[in-house]
Design brief:
FAD; binds flavin-adenine dinucleotide; globular; alpha+beta; 8-stranded mixed sheet; flavoprotein; D-Amino Acid Oxidase, Chain A, domain 2; 21 strands; binds 3,4-dihydroxybenzoic acid; oxidoreductase activity, acting on paired donors, with incorporation or reduction of molecular oxygen, NAD(P)H as one donor, and incorporation of one atom of oxygen; 28% strand; 12 helices; single chain; FAD/NAD(P)-binding domain
């Protein structure tokens, strides 16, 4: 088969790109290595920035988000026995975020795509991309037990951090910038109502903790743990007890407990591959860059990349000019590096590294005090958290 744009990976980046291309009448095919059920159940991010919601609305993919998503106008920081709330709309001129799980974004986009969108092929792992510098590309993949080839003008790697499309860029043509953090997160999903109606980010002498949610009946909670922790070493009671201690600036404060339905350990790393384009091959989302989860930027960056990319393809389609594809990488990297810095800042301000000195802890607390005391420092955090408008957006 042949298509204009081959999209590798049906995570949020690949699915939204396919939707946006379809709305511009640009031919594409999405190849996804896993099955639909797996992709729809994979537990990941939960916070959508204002601009992510705006893009999903414009893509006609926000009906259920409008009904079931939870708008949030702030977060709470806890440190040194204090609680401090940041009021996002007041600090940013009206911007906010939404709690709506990545699993739900993915389900909504898959349903749209299967209803009237371009082909979406599950269980079709891609193993090679050829012709990045030629007149066209060939994508080699396996489907139904057979080797297949898709020819196309452009290949977009939306295949995540462990994807293969990046390998179509020869090593000398790309630079990787990376940082690994000396701690991990234990994340749980529990059938228990959230303890508070906003997210709580807690600095504590025993490490970071985060209280998030998926719905009024389901809590999503995270706990800093050592690298290499086995989830089995954390029975449910131990998790709840530790969360209570880390959040518990006040003796009368307790999480509402309930059955833990999922438990997993996530490593933490920052990485950026530059440039995000090589000839006919483009990278978007986690395939090009990852952030540590603190601050919830990963999914939002995937959405901003493909929004810029869809506009570049639309420009080519309508005018024959590839200028926006030529500037794609530069157009994305400013926002990418801003999110890299913010995620690094949130991570290193809120976590306690193994063997951390009392000096470093004092610096963290001074920074948190500063955010609590100064509207300028608070606005800096709030602007980064809610995200800047995308180009061409109000
Ligand atoms: P992905 O969602 O990774 O999608 C890539 C897709 O490509 C996958 O469906 C994969 O199966 C497919 N694929 C891979 N290789 C191939 C191949 N060879 N051929 C075909 N298809 C292929 N962010 C937060 O803000 N908060 C969180 O709590 C959070 N938790 C996370 C937990 C984990 C375990 C991970 C990995 C990420 C988490 N993130 C979180 C980050 C966020 O989920 C990602 O930034 C987001 O998923 C990026 O979307 P994407 O479409 O670029 O990549
Ligand atoms: C969630 C994850 C984050 O990394 C974050 O900063 C906020 C919320 C979540 O999964 O709900």
């Amino acid at each position: 088969p042949r298509t204009r744009v081959a999209v590798v990976g049906a995570g949020p980046a690949g699915l939204l790109l396919a939707r946006l291309l379809h709305l511009h009448s640009i031919d594409c095919v999405v190849l996804e290595s896993r099955g639909r059920g797996y992709v729809e159940q994979r537990q990941r991010a939960g916070i959508l920035e204002q601009s992510t919601v705006d893009v999903l609305r414009r893509a006609g993919a926000a009906d259920r988000l409008e009904r079931e998503g939870l708008p949030h106008d702030g977060i709470e920081l806890r440190f040194a026995g204090r609680r401090h709330r940041l009021d996002f709309p007041a600090l940013t001129g009206g911007r906010r975020v939404w709690v709506y799980a990545q699993t739900e974004v993915v389900k909504d986009l898959i349903a749209l795509q299967l209803a009237d969108g371009p082909p979406l092929v599950f269980e079709a792992p891609v193993h090679a991309v050829e012709g990045a510098q030629d007149g066209g590309c060939t994508v080699r993949y396996t489907h139904g037990g057979r080797e297949r080839a898709l020819t196309c003008d452009w290949v977009v790697g939306c295949d995540g951090f462990h994807g293969v499309v990046r390998d179509a860029v020869p090593a000398p043509a790309r630079q990787v910038h990376e940082r690994v953090y000396p701690y991990a997160w234990l994340g749980i999903l529990a059938d228990a109502p959230p303890v508070h109606d906003e997210l709580i980010y807690a600095h504590s002498p025993r490490g970071f903790a985060l209280a998030s949610m998926r719905s009024p009946a389901v809590s999503r909670l995270y706990l800093q743990v050592p690298v290499g922790t086995e989830p089995g070493t954390w029975p449910d009671e131990r998790i709840w007890d530790e969360l209570d201690v880390r959040f518990g600036a006040h003796a009368d404060w307790r999480l509402t407990r309930g059955p833990v339905t999922q438990k997993a350990v996530l490593p933490m790393r920052s990485s950026v591959t530059e440039p995000m384009r090589y000839g006919r091959v483009l990278l978007a989302g986690d395939a090009a860059h990852i952030v540590p989860p603190t601050g919830a930027k990963g999914l939002n960056l995937a959405v901003s990349d493909v929004t810029v990319l869809a506009r570049a393809f639309a420009h080519l389609h309508e005018t024959g000019s590839a200028t926006l594809l030529d500037t794609y990488s530069d157009d994305c990297l400013g926002r990418v590096w801003r999110a890299e810095h913010f995620s690094y800042f949130m991570t290193t301000t809120l976590h306690t590294a193994p063997g951390q000195s009392s000096f470093d802890t004092r610096l963290q607390l001074s920074q948190l005090e500063r955010v609590a005391a100064s509207p300028h420092a608070a606005a800096e955090l709030a602007e980064n958290y809610t995200g800047a408008p995308l180009p061409g957006e109000g």
